[in-house]
Design brief:
Blueprint: H1 2-10, H2 17-24, H3 29-47, E1 50-60, H4 86-98, E2 103-108, H5 112-132, E3 136-140, H6 148-155, E4 159-161, H7 169-175, H8 181-193, E5 197-204, H9 210-223, E6 227-232, H10 250-262, E7 269-271, H11 272-275, H12 280-285, E8 290-294, H13 318-327, E9 331-332, H14 335-346
Parallel strand pairs: 1-2, 1-8, 1-9, 2-3, 3-4, 4-5, 5-6, 7-8
Helix pairs in contact: 1-3, 2-9, 3-10, 4-5, 5-6, 9-10
The structure holds S-adenosylmethionine, 5-amino-D-isoleucine (MD0) and iron/sulfur cluster.
């Protein structure tokens, strides 16, 4: 039965939510391996042995929101926060580019300072990185008003990332307090209308059930986002969810593999922000084809889910990640290969 669903997906036939539910319900080790090996086959067929690499530049950790799962929620008072200057961000993005990283993910909390004056701070940062560095850019600034998307695109962003976390509406509302479910869903639609590529994402272990996971995967797929992700929730000190029992990575790995076989040509990240470098091999083996959250040491930069893990010891550094990929028989993609990939996808969005 599992084999039939996998074969159906590989042949490009439509797979129902019930069938996705069945795949996400797998617990048997041999069925799990069947799923992962199918995912690798599909990934290698579509992308060969090349893996894209993204550097993570969390440039402002100030946030006006109060998401219950997040370390950086505004009520978490006693944490060290920082805001990088444009010059520092340009320098960080430049060093990522020089090291051979394909994209800089410019990420912030919903920082009122960046949103002031028609989002001047945010737009200046994006256009400075475009003009002075010339690396591909993802903007992850939180939810924006619709009219901002063409401006973000004009400033030079290639991607806009905004994760729904779950398409279970009441669950969303219990996590992203005082935020609109529909508005956050629409972010992805508006971004693509403006010619940006878009990323959606789900979190695992927030209180959702297997059916929620299946529905979220299918909804993310149907919105057409060119990149889709799953990340396991990591409980954060000082938040209402600090005592939640953490999940291991099994459900995330299944989600990665299921997304891969359902949506063979999408980008699907292996985030180093969940288990640090220890999580790289399993996620690549589950069908991921982008490594995200590469963070250079000694720059006072933080992660999100793992704000410290493996950063200052250099394990999330470019060299270390490239070495590990080689050991696994994969290679990091050249930026020229990444840019061609983006250009081929861009034909599908907005007016481009
Ligand atoms: N502030 C922006 C926003 O919320 O869209 C952009 C950055 S936000 C920190 C990026 C994503 O990190 C969230 O959408 C969520 O999926 C993920 N995240 C935050 N806290 C996490 C946690 N404790 N464990 C796992 N993922 C987390
Ligand atoms: C990551 N910590 O890639 C980053 C972050 C935001 N676009 C991405 C969640 O894991
Ligand atoms: Fe702010 Fe994003 Fe964290 Fe929510 S997930 S509190 S919007 S930084």
């Amino acid at each position: 039965m599992i084999s039939d669903i996998i074969a159906k997906a590989e042949n490009g036939s439509e797979v129902s939510v019930d069938e996705v539910f069945e795949l996400m319900s797998i617990t048997d080790a041999s069925e799990m391996e069947e799923l992962f090996s199918a995912a690798r086959r599909v990934r290698d067929r579509n992308f060969g042995k090349k893996i894209f690499t993204y550097g993570f530049v969390y440039f402002s950790t100030y946030c006006k929101n109060n998401c219950s799962f997040c370390y950086y929620r505004c009520s978490n008072n006693n944490i060290g926060r920082y805001r990088k200057s444009v010059e520092e961000i340009v320098q960080l993005a430049g060093s990522l580019k020089d090291a051979g990283i394909n994209l800089a993910d410019l990420t912030m909390g919903e920082d009122p300072k960046m949103y002031a004056d028609g989002y001047k701070g945010l737009l200046d940062i994006i256009s400075s990185v475009r003009d002075e560095v010339g690396i591909s850019i993802m903007a992850s600034p939180g939810a924006l008003p619709r009219e901002m998307f063409p401006k973000v695109r004009e400033a030079g962003a290639d991607w806009y990332a905004c994760y729904q976390e779950t398409y279970n509406r009441p669950l969303f509302e219990s996590l992203r307090l005082d935020q609109s479910f529909d508005d956050r869903r629409n972010q992805k639609v508006w971004a693509r209308e403006a010619g940006l590529l878009a990323e959606d994402g789900m979190m695992i272990g927030l209180g959702e059930d297997v059916r929620d996971r299946a529905e979220t995967i299918v909804t993310m797929g149907s919105l057409g986002c060119e990149q889709i992700r799953a990340m396991t929730f990591v409980p954060q000190e000082g938040t209402p969810m600090q005592d939640h029992t953490p999940y291991d990575s099994t459900e995330e790995l299944k989600a990665i593999a299921v997304m891969r076989i359902l949506y063979p040509d999408r980008l699907i990240p292996c985030s180093l922000d969940v288990e640090g470098i220890a999580g790289l091999k399993t996620r690549i083996a589950a069908g991921a084809n982008v490594i995200t959250s590469i963070v250079p040491p000694n720059q006072n930069l933080a992660g999100v889910a793992q704000h410290e893990l493996d950063i200052e010891n250099g394990n999330r550094s470019v060299d270390h990640v490239f070495e590990m990929l080689d050991e696994m028989g994969y290679r990091h993609a050249e930026s020229s290969e990444y840019v061609s990939f983006l250009n081929s996808r861009r034909a599908g969005v907005g007016g481009a």
